[in-house]
Known about the structure:
Layout (H helix, E strand, L loop, with lengths): L17 H8 L2 H13 L2 E2 L12 H14 L2 E6 L2 E6 L1 H7 L3 H5 L1
Antiparallel strand pairs: 1-3, 2-3
Helix pairs in contact: 1-3
Amino acid sequence: MTGSTREFAHPEAAGLELTGVLFALSDPIRLDLVRRLATEGSLEVAECQPRSGPLPKSTLSHHLKTLREAGVIRNVPNGRHRSLSLRRDDLDERFPGLLDAVL
Length: 103
């Protein structure tokens, strides 16, 4: 069995919508993950379980997809793993001060 190296689509910075970003950040689990990315830097998907307790893989995948499709995070293959990073530069350029206000 081989790992998937499928690339996920990420919206362009100019196409980020405030309503989508705010919706993605409105969930406490997603907000906690974004806070961790903001303070700790890049994380592997396996390290992304919330501090409140483990989530089923399908629920974690849903949260990551919501954040990625809103343009909040970047999810890229890294060998047999996936690396997550906060798109702070893109978000700060499109919505100056938003992340600082929310986080």
